Amino acid sequence: MKVTIPTTSSSSDLRAPWTWYHILIEYPNGRKMTVKRRYREFCELHETLEKQSSQFDTAVPPIPPKSWFSSTVTNSSLRESRRLQLEEFLGRLVYSDWFHLQVVKDFLELREPSQMEFVTPQSIQPQYWLILYEETKRTVHELRVAVLSRRTMTPAEERSTLYKLKKNIQLLATSLSGSESVSSLGPGEIQRRNDLVGKLDCDIDYLQAEIRSQGGTSIEVSSPWNSSGEYSSPQRNQLFKSSRRVLGKSSSTSLPAEQQRLDNHGLYAQQMKTMDTQDQQVESLLPLIQRQKELSMAICNEVEQQNDMLDEVSAYTGHTQHKLQKTRGRLRRLE
């Protein structure tokens, strides 16, 4: 989705005129929508976002300051400068995590369901393909955080998120193979984008398996990628069928039975799950290792103190022996 401010206009109020900024919203399917906002409304949005800045790592994009000695209604240079700055503010807002806040969607008058649901593979342009990919990748990340942190999700939320992700994956993959709009891309770029879609699909399979293991629900959507990560029965029989031509000793596969049913995507998802489990085990050992480190440092400090005390005792012993030798010498002279 692309957001710009191509034009401005003045209000019809002659007593206190103001400037309207025409926000043009362009969707990947070619649809366009215009929203008119005043500078005061931009300030209110910025103030609202500033109050919620603790929720995000990135700062709120700045807006142009208020002018006390000039008006955008009469000063065309000030109006043009403010238009460009507000356009930059919206552009940075759309491509950040702030865009998902409801206050931003209300400001732009974005209504549910999302306009992405009306996108067809033939209508996706190369630049909008990347936007849809980034939105899908961001949704996958948010779902991964929710699942791995054991955050409570309702079945309806699970179904809605998984369905949206599956549909977006299907849309991204289909648009790369059956759309004329990607003809301008080279074969290397198309292959790179196919790899990106394949990785996203594996991540979704892994998250779906995690939700299923936690007693959640799953969504099956037909797509060019096998959503379950397994071969169908005819494919499995074709892959593991016996052959009459045997050269030497027939070798049997060394994979376990549960892995023989998986294709490359399924194996990748299983390996990712195993690695995440190992990471969690390592993280559980960190407190124990930290405690052992603290004990080792305490023992080291104690040993250093004991060494200092032994050095003092050794020095005192040497001093005492010197005195005893001098005393013995005096006694001999007295004798």
From TrEMBL:
GO terms for biological process: Golgi to vacuole transport; vacuole fusion. InterPro entries: PX_dom (IPR001683), PX_dom_sf (IPR036871), T_SNARE_dom (IPR000727). GO terms for molecular function: phosphatidylinositol binding. One of its GO terms (cellular component) is fungal-type vacuole membrane. Residues 1-115 form the PX domain. PROSITE patterns: PX, T_SNARE. It comes from the Eukaryota. Residues 272-334 form the T-SNARE coiled-coil homology domain. This is Vacuolar SNARE Vam7.
